[in-house]
Design a protein that fits this description.
- With 424 residues, this protein is mainly alpha-helical.
- It has 2 domains: 91 residues, Hormone receptor fold, CATH 4.10.1240.10; 264 residues, Rhopdopsin 7-helix transmembrane proteins (Up-down Bundle).
- The chain is 65% helix and 5% strand.
- The strands form 3 sheets. It has a 3-stranded antiparallel sheet with strand order 5-6-7, with no helix packed on it. Strands 1-4 form a two-stranded antiparallel ribbon. A two-stranded antiparallel ribbon has the order 2-3.
- A hairpin with a 2-residue loop joins strand 6 and strand 7.
- The relative contact order is 0.08.
- Keywords: Cell membrane, G-protein coupled receptor, Glycoprotein, Membrane, Receptor, Transducer, Transmembrane, Transmembrane helix.
- Its main location: membrane.
- InterPro entries: GPCR_2, GPCR_2-like_7TM, GPCR_2_extracell_dom_sf, GPCR_2_extracellular_dom, GPCR_2_PACAP_1_rcpt, GPCR_2_secretin-like, GPCR_2_secretin-like_CS.
- One of its GO terms (biological process) is adenylate cyclase-modulating G protein-coupled receptor signaling pathway.
Length: 424
C-alpha cells in the first residue's frame, strides 16, 4: 500500500537525521529537489505541466493513479551527489498517445505571447507619441486612453522582465531564487497587471457615465479615475506583498499556493471583470435604444450593423474576453486558459491601439492636417531658397523666414477656403 510505503520512507529518513547533508538544492528544469543526506531516496510528484498534457486522457490518468508509483519520480543521494532520476518523467508522468512534449507546448505559448506583447508594445508606444504630440487631441477621453496605453506598456515590460529573471537561463536554480530583487520584480509584475485591469474598468465606467449623465464634469471625474486606476492597485499589491513576506515567504513569490493571500489580487481582478461586463451590457442596451430612436433614422439592417460594429469595438476596450475563464476554477481547462489569456490576450494592446488611435477619425484628420502644413512650408522653403538665394546672407534671420512662410501658408489656406465657398 502507498501509505505503508510512505511510512517506511519516513522512518528511513529519520535514521539519517544526524548525517551531514551532501546533496544540495537542485533544479532540473522541471522539479526542485530538496537537500538530502547520503542514502536518502527523495520522491517528488510529477510537475504540474504534465497534468495539462494529460487532461485529454483522464481515463488513462485515473487508472494509473491506482499504482503507488504513478505520478512520482525519485533520486538517490549518493557520495557523489544526486543519482539519475528513476523512473523518468516520460515513463510515469506523460500519458499522451501522440507523444507531444509538454516542454514544446509551453515554449510555443511563451513564443506566442512574446510576439503579442512585442507587437503591442511597439504599437502602443507609437500611439502614445501621436496622442502626446498633437495638442488638439488632448481631452479627457484621450487622456483616459493614454493611461490605458501606459498600463498595457507597463504590463508588457513587466512580463519581459519577469521572464528574464525567472526563465532567462535554462540551468538557473529555481529552487534558490528568493532574492529581494526577484520578489520586487514579482510585485512590479502584479502591480502592472492589476493596473491594466483597473484602467479597462475605468474605460467602461467613463463611457457608461458619459451616456447616462447629461451634465458630466469630465475634469473632476478624471481626477478620481486617476486615483482609482493607479492608487487602488498600489494598495492591493502592497497588502499582498506584506502578507507574503510574513506568512508565505517562499521562493520568488511566483507560485501562489496560499489561496487566501492570492485573493488579495485575484479578488479585485475578478471584481473589475464582472463590473465591466455589467457596464458592457448596460451600454449595449443604451445603444440599442438610441439606434432605434426616430431621430437616428435608417433601416433595420443598418441599425444592427452599427450595433454590431459598436459591440466589436467595445469588446477589446472593456476586456470582455476575460470573462470566458474568469469564474472557472484554475485547475480546469489549463491548456485553453493559457492559450486564450496569455497567447491571444497579449495582442489586446495592439488591437486597442489600432482601434482607438490609428483608425480614429479625429487622429487621422489631425495627422493629415499636420502633413499638409509641413508639405506647404517645405515647398515654400525650397521655393524661396531657389528664387532668392541671397536671403540667407542679407540679414534676414531664420525667425523672419519662418514668419514669411507662416503668412504665406495662411494666405493660401484663406484663398482656398474662399474658392471652396459657393457664391451667394
Amino acid at each position: 500500500m502507498c501509505r505503508e510505503r510512505q511510512t517506511m520512507i519516513f522512518f528511513y529518513n529519520m535514521i539519517f537525521l544526524f548525517i551531514p547533508l551532501v546533496c544540495q538544492w537542485m533544479w532540473d528544469n522541471l522539479t526542485c529537489w530538496q537537500p538530502a543526506k547520503i542514502g536518502q531516496v527523495i520522491w517528488m510528484p510529477c510537475p504540474e505541466l504534465f497534468e495539462v498534457m494529460n487532461e485529454e486522457n483522464d481515463g488513462e490518468y485515473m487508472n494509473n493513479t491506482l499504482n503507488c508509483e504513478f505520478g512520482k519520480v525519485s533520486r538517490n543521494c549518493t557520495e557523489d551527489g544526486w543519482s539519475e532520476m528513476f523512473p523518468h518523467y516520460v515513463d510515469v508522468c506523460l500519458f499522451n498517445e501522440n507523444g507531444t512534449s509538454p516542454d514544446m507546448y509551453y515554449v510555443t505559448v511563451k513564443a506566442l505571447y512574446t510576439v503579442g506583447y512585442s507587437t503591442s508594445l511597439v504599437s502602443l508606444t507609437t500611439a502614445m507619441v501621436i496622442l502626446c504630440r498633437f495638442r488638439k487631441l488632448h481631452c479627457t477621453r484621450n487622456f483616459i486612453h493614454m493611461n490605458l496605453f501606459v498600463s498595457f506598456i507597463l504590463r508588457a515590460f513587466s512580463v519581459f522582465i519577469k521572464d528574464g529573471i525567472l526563465y532567462a537561463e535554462e540551468e538557473s536554480n529555481h529552487c534558490f531564487i528568493h532574492t529581494v530583487e526577484c520578489k520586487a520584480v514579482m510585485v512590479f509584475f502584479h502591480y502592472c497587471v492589476l493596473s491594466n485591469y483597473f484602467w479597462l474598468f475605468i474605460e467602461g465606467l467613463y463611457l457608461f457615465t458619459l451616456l447616462v449623465e447629461t451634465f458630466f464634469p469630465e475634469k473632476r471625474y478624471f481626477y478620481w479615475y486617476t486615483i482609482i486606476g493607479w492608487g487602488t492597485p498600489t494598495i492591493c499589491v502592497a497588502v499582498w506583498a506584506v502578507l507574503r513576506a510574513h506568512f508565505d515567504n517562499i521562493g520568488c513569490w511566483d507560485i501562489n499556493d496560499n489561496a487566501a493571500i492570492w485573493w488579495v489580487i485575484k479578488g479585485p481582478v475578478l471584481a473589475s471583470i464582472m463590473i465591466n461586463f455589467i457596464l458592457f451590457i448596460g451600454i449595449i442596451i443604451i445603444l440599442v435604444q438610441k439606434l432605434q430612436s426616430p431621430d437616428i433614422g435608417g433601416n433595420e439592417s443598418s441599425i444592427y450593423l452599427r450595433l454590431a460594429r459598436s459591440t466589436l469595438l467595445l469588446i477589446p476596450l472593456f476586456g470582455i474576453h476575460y470573462t470566458v475563464f474568469a469564474f472557472t476554477p484554475e485547475d480546469i481547462s489549463k491548456r485553453e486558459r493559457l492559450v486564450f489569456e496569455l497567447g491571444l490576450g497579449s495582442f489586446q494592446g495592439f488591437v486597442v491601439a489600432v482601434l482607438y488611435c490609428f483608425l480614429n477619425g479625429e487622429v487621422q484628420s489631425e495627422i493629415k492636417r499636420k502633413w499638409r502644413s509641413w508639405t506647404v512650408n517645405r515647398y515654400f522653403a525650397v521655393d524661396i531658397k531657389h528664387r532668392h538665394p541671397s536671403l540667407a546672407s542679407s540679414g534676414v534671420n531664420g525667425g523672419t523666414q519662418l514668419s514669411i512662410l507662416s503668412k504665406s501658408s495662411s494666405q493660401i489656406r484663406m484663398s482656398s477656403l474662399q474658392a471652396e465657398t459657393p457664391a451667394t
